[in-house]
């Protein structure tokens, strides 16, 4: 050990007793003082060597772990990030939302000073809480040009189903995090305006009399009904992709969502009916939400049944808030400035504008404060954000429906189509009758 220390240039190891190393001369000191000095110096060098060895050891473990993870993730680059909670920062950022009456922006001084860890490199990112050793945030970034042509075509065709859905269903205007913010002590305010558009497909508690649960209705127009009838039966393809990709991003989270939905009998957002004679019963997340048109919201926790939330983000062309929307090779996330997904609880997030292709995120929506920051899209472009969840209201609604054992207490896809077709037919007949009366008067 002393040879190793001396090799590092320890000036105290080879001194004669009574000598003190100096700049070109030696000074006299007591033997006991010299021995104490030598022991302290040698301990420092031993501690440093031990720390260096531990660093090499842990780096070896980390490198080995990365190799194991990359083999499990089929060769994807795996990045490990160790994170911890920032309770004081969260208070500060919530106060900024209240003060500014708008969602956070990556250019805000509060965010710049917080210096979050932004993820944007292709591959898998696993964020591990240093206190609990749990994965609390996970991201997969898959550039389109790194997918096989078959995988790219299938993925984009499946996501196009969702973009088409957005043209057929009404906007959700009751999402509290989009409308405003609440301080950690309940001092809530409304934003000066809502940012972007939110829509949804799946099952929710019904607002209609004597009904427990319902699917989201189409817009009351003939064009929307046509699209609704065309795309809703394709949703099982969407649900299958979301389920499979969640299970490959974070297997335990995917398995838990599937197992809990099966145990509770939660209908997948893709199921057209609760009637097993007409629709295969495939439990999964009951709700899928879609956001676009520079959507942003406040730091919040979700009101869901459990903490698992998972979603996909991508960029597309846009002819306006009602579409049509399509994938274009020239349009990617860099067409939209800002819009970071931010996990404020752990001061980490995704910088979409530096990402490419498909971005997937797992987060603990019920436990950790998170938000989508403000963004600005180039003309003719938009960024889509989606999430699948088992909502608490959905669980309550399906329980109420099961307790009544009355199939008439649900409004499924078939009833939505029949009811709207009937209404539109009545409107059409009234307009025709009015046109005939006007023609007679002329």
TrEMBL record:
Q: Bias category Low complexity: which stretches?
A: 23-32
Q: What are the Tet-like 2OG-Fe(II) oxygenase domain coordinates in residue numbering?
A: 179-375
Sequence segments annotated as region (Disordered): 15-41
One matching Pfam family is 2OG-FeII_Oxy_6
UniProt protein name: Tet-like 2OG-Fe(II) oxygenase domain-containing protein
Q: Which organism is it from?
A: Boletus reticuloceps
